[in-house]
Fold:
Amino acid sequence: MKRIIKSVIICLFIYLIFGLIQYSFALKPNEALQILKNGNKRFLTQNLRFTCVCETCDLCISHKWREENNCKLTTPEQLACLAGGQHPFATIISCSDSRIVPEILFDTGMEDLFVIRVAGNTWDDMVLGSIEYGVAHAHTPVLVVMGHQHCGAITATVNAVLEKEWPEGKYIKRIIIKLLPPVLNAIKELGWDAPKKEIIDLAIKKNVKDMINLIRRNSHIVNELEKEGKLKIIGAVVYIEGDPNKNIAPGEVIFEDDPRW
Structure:
């Protein structure tokens, strides 16, 4: 009997400790978003964070501690500290484009971001399942759908519509088909005679918004977390060469809450 009681007490103690650890990693949605914005500012100014130098693993894998001490996890030894689990603070769906690397753009380290990359930052069941895992099981308080300037998938879709130029590849064509709605909506808004660049730029933003709406329509988990205030969903666009007309620098990530959006 004493052994049973002792086992129960140990289990309760472990559960309590685990709960405290989980709580220590918790960030509010707006706090997580601000960490992303701060990281992009560091990337733009080349004032990048240093690799963490800390006394214990428990300390260095606290996101708040790392943000306050201007450090990130980058070494094999620090990777070993994460063997017990991951605690990313943001889920990001972005394009597979080799120029668009969220971990670099937001100046983060290992385990900071739960990233889903797919051409055209579009969707299928696997993408939606990955998003649900990021927000519900990895407990990220912010979900970012991120398009980018000069998106090849959007450009190919615009060319398919305007020039009747469809790329080769059965599965590439499936991506184009998924991107037709935002492209056609951009053409409808701007007109068929609008400059191609303007159509592409608008379609990139519309694709981000369409993806957000699609996630909300199809994922009960995402909807519940958002309604409970545990999750913030926001769109963003990475500017590869910037936009001097809007005072946007090369490499800057513009979120949809920015007036320059």
In short: The beta strands are 50-51, 71-72, 90-94, 113-117, 142-148, 232-238, 253-255. The radius of gyration is 21 Å. Residues 2-25 form the longest helix (24 residues). The longest strand covers residues 142-148.
